[in-house]
């Protein structure tokens, strides 16, 4: 009688290998003492940052701030093989990337809830034996832990808590098979599928993509087109039924489309490498927090990943050294990190750190008649002490300008040191949505100027117009400053 072979149990957490100390640490009895994970290894590549189109100087220091780092969890194992590129993308974008074997999560040694974004990389999970992403999706949907919960249950809670999920290639296939994309019904029931390319062959080529301008996904904010490689055999998106197709289009969930040489969406091969419905290369869910795509943005992080980089660099020596794919990662990291805290004044007024609060601030703010709530209660906990301190210690220019703006002297009511979203503005007329800022010398600093520009952009997106005057102009030419403010008020109110 033949002895039954002892096959490895795929549900057992991986044991450490002598050449790979990254996995869990066990004692002599095999009990796990320390759940393991793989961290990103810089290897032998240069640690110099890539130069963007806006930065071509080699001596510029990277900007830092005291914000909480963005934490990205990247799953690997069972045939996934693009985890290192995925982690490198997050590292370049300024996040903390952690790679773990899927079993570490399934066995409860690592919690997805300790991270801001969960990532499913590309590869060939379970060898695509039953179709790309099918086995892994079923494992996440049906395998229960000791509490009787599946990882899909945890992922749904993770998304509901405002966190993000991203899947690339095989990871996109997993999200589709799980029903997390497009998830029109909200019941994580598969509504579309990904099947064999219309070409009948494995496609490994560069493609151009266009972002759906109606998409609400923060991954794609500010991006129009990008060029990235594809490498898949089952990337053809099939949408079940006219109603599902119409709903996807109506909600702009078809966030990425394959385009031809002149930027028009196309179903013509090889510009569209797989024949996908709606020429679709990527999907989001209705919240925009779940995002998946077939092409590989993590494979184009540097200009030098592109086969045509040499000719392009010769034609344009100032060409950005960043690859198009890095934009997606920079976007989501910036979105999760949120806006920078309000900048301190020259006197460092309002230097209270984010997250600290004075008891009763929210209640006092909501009941005080002289205030209008233009931020959230949570944000006011941080901004309130800054605003009060700024009112107590105005600069000379702020005090002088306030004397001219208060009590509706210009025919409109202004408020000073008022909280709007995540910022405190010097003066604002809420009825006209006009903000007036008094800038000291600190605002001539390059880093502060860049911050001011971003802050102004956010306020403009909220519908406000921003006027900026230097302290010196306010002190030396108050009449001219007031004339400009009054002119804008008249124009807005006309």
Automatic annotation (TrEMBL):
Residues 1-68 are annotated as: Disordered. Pfam families: DUF559, GATase_5. This is DUF559 domain-containing protein. One of its GO terms (biological process) is purine nucleotide biosynthetic process. It comes from the Bacteria. One of its GO terms (cellular component) is cytoplasm. GO terms for molecular function: phosphoribosylformylglycinamidine synthase activity.
């Amino acid at each position: 009688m033949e002895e039954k072979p002892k096959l490895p149990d795929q549900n057992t957490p991986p044991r450490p290998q002598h050449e790979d100390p990254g996995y869990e640490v066990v004692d002599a009895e095999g009990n796990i003492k320390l759940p393991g994970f793989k961290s990103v290894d810089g290897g032998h590549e240069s640690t110099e940052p890539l130069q963007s189109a806006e930065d071509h100087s080699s001596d510029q220091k990277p900007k830092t701030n005291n914000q909480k780092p963005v934490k990205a969890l990247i799953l690997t194992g069972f045939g996934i093989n693009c985890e290192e590129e995925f982690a490198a993308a997050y590292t370049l974008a300024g996040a903390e990337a952690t790679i773990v074997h899927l079993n570490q999560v399934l066995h409860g040694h690592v919690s997805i809830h300790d991270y801001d974004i969960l990532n499913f990389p590309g590869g060939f999970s379970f060898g695509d034996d039953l179709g790309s992403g099918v086995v892994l999706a079923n494992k996440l949907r049906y395998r229960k832990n000791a509490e009787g919960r599946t990882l899909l249950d945890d992922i749904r809670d993770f998304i509901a808590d405002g966190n993000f999920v991203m899947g690339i290639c095989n990871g996109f296939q997993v999200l589709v098979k799980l029903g997390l994309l497009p998830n029109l019904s909200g019941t994580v029931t598969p509504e579309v599928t990904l099947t064999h390319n219309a070409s009948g062959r494995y496609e490994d080529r560069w493609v151009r993509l266009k972002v759906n301008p109606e998409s609400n996904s923060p991954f794609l904010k500010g991006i129009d087109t990008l060029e990235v490689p594809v490498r898949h055999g089952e990337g053809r998106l099939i949408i079940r039924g006219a109603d599902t197709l119409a709903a996807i289009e109506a909600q702009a969930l078809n966030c990425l489309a394959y385009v031809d040489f002149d930027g028009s969406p196309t179903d013509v091969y090889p510009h569209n490498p797989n024949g996908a419905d709606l020429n679709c290369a990527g999907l989001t869910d209705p919240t925009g927090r779940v995002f998946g795509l077939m092409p590989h943005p993590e494979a184009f992080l540097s200009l030098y990943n592109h086969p045509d980089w040499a000719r392009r660099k010769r034609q344009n020596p100032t060409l950005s050294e960043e690859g198009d794919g890095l934009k997606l990662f920079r976007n989501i990291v910036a979105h999760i990190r949120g806006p920078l805290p309000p900048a301190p004044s020259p006197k460092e007024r309002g230097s209270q750190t984010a997250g600290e609060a004075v008891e009763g601030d929210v209640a006092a703010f909501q009941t005080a008649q002289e205030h209008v709530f233009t931020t959230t209660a949570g944000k006011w906990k941080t901004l309130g002490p800054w605003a009060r301190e700024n009112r107590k210690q105005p600069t000379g220019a702020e005090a002088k300008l306030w004397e001219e703006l208060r009590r509706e002297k210009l025919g409109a009511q202004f408020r000073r040191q008022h909280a709007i979203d995540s910022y405190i503005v010097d003066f604002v007329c809420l009825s006209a949505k006009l903000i007036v800022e008094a800038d000291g010398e600190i605002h001539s600093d390059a880093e502060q100027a860049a911050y001011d520009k971003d802050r102004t952009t956010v306020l403009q997106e909220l519908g406000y117009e921003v006027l900026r005057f230097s302290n010196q102009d306010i002190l030396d030419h108050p009449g001219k400053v007031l004339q400009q403010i009054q002119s804008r008020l008249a124009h807005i109110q006309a």
